[in-house]
Every structure is written in C-alpha cells, then in structure tokens.
Amino acid sequence: MIIRDEKPADIAAIRRVVEAAFQQPAEADLVDRLRADGDSVLSLVAEGEGEIIGHVLFSPMSAPFPALGLAPVSVLPERQHSGIGSKLIREGLTRAERRGCRVVFVLGEPEYYKRFGFDPALATGFASPYAGPYLMALPLNGVMPAERGRVDYAPAFATLG
C-alpha cells in the first residue's frame, strides 16, 4: 500500500470510496464541493494493488492561527480496521505540519481520534457551530498558539445536515 497525493484521474474512485465508507453520498458531495471551491489543501489516497482503497482530506479553517480541518477520512468497508485510515491521518498530519499548519481540528469520535493526539479539551475555548465534546484540536508542535477564538470550517461544511 502506498499513500500519495490525489490525482485528477482518482476523483471517481475517491467518490466511490467515500460513498461506500459512509453508505450515503453526503460526505462524497462534501469532498467534491471542497475540491470545486479550492478548499482541498491536502487530499491523500491510499492505493493498494492499483486500486484506491482509502482517502483523507484536510481543508482550511478560519482560526486565529494557521489551521486545517480533518474530514472526511474514508476507507472501503472491506478494508476497514486494518490501519489504512490511521496511516492516511498520520501522513496528512505530517504534511500539514510541513506546510506551516499550527493546529488541526476534527469533529468526530473522541475515542478514535485521541490515538493521534486530538483532545476535546483543547477545543473548548473556541466558538464554533460544532463546539462540544466531538470537536477536538491537535497542536502540531505540541502547544496551542491560542486558547480562545472562533474557528470555522470551509463553507462547504454548511451543506452537511
């Protein structure tokens, strides 16, 4: 398996992976909209045996410091629970830090994302439509550059229910 940047030829396969992973089109529509809006900062695929088997996307966030939002991460159902999603996330975090990102936010299941260092407590001082126990932050250099402020995902996220 290799992890690499998305290529234009991967778009249809990425859509199939995202739809299969979420068993609905909403998240795949989100990926397409983020890409169309120019809000796909990092879009990585996991490729195994010549097939796209996983995908992760990082988009810009409005924040008091350089920040990205991690969402969605998708793996084909038959390949889930094999570490593909974790590898995609870790590679994305490494690349985000290289690009000068200070903090990555994610809205998701704390028990899953804590393994990468995400912490709901680090996001509690930030106003957001998604504020609450599922909004988490990960400072990429280990220190939050601010403890308060407002954070907003890219506009395409407003289309999710």
Distance between the termini: 33 Å
Would you tell me which CATH topology applies?
A: Aminopeptidase
Query: What's the SSE pattern?
Result: EHHEEEHEHEEE
Low-confidence stretches: none
Inertia-based shape: globular
CATH class: Alpha Beta
Largest sheet: 6 strands, mixed
Q: Quick one: CATH superfamily?
A: Gcn5-related N-acetyltransferase (GNAT)
Class inferred from helices and paired strands: alpha/beta
How confident overall, as mean pLDDT? 96
Percent helix, as a range, is 25-40%
Key terms:
161 residues; alpha/beta; Aminopeptidase; six-stranded mixed beta sheet; two-stranded parallel ribbon; 4 helices; 8 strands; 26% helix
Short description, anyone?
The chain has helices at 11-22, 26-36, 84-98, 110-113; strands at 2-5, 42-48, 51-61, 67-75, 103-107, 126-127, 135-139, 149-150. The strands form two sheets. The protein has a six-stranded mixed sheet with strand order 1-2-3-4-5-7, sandwiched between helices. A two-stranded parallel ribbon has the order 6-8. The protein is α/β, with parallel strands linked by helices.
Task: Describe this entry's structure for a reader.
The chain is built from four helices and eight strands. With 161 residues, it is of the alpha/beta class. It has a single domain, classed as Aminopeptidase, CATH 3.40.630.30. The N and C termini lie far apart (33 Å).
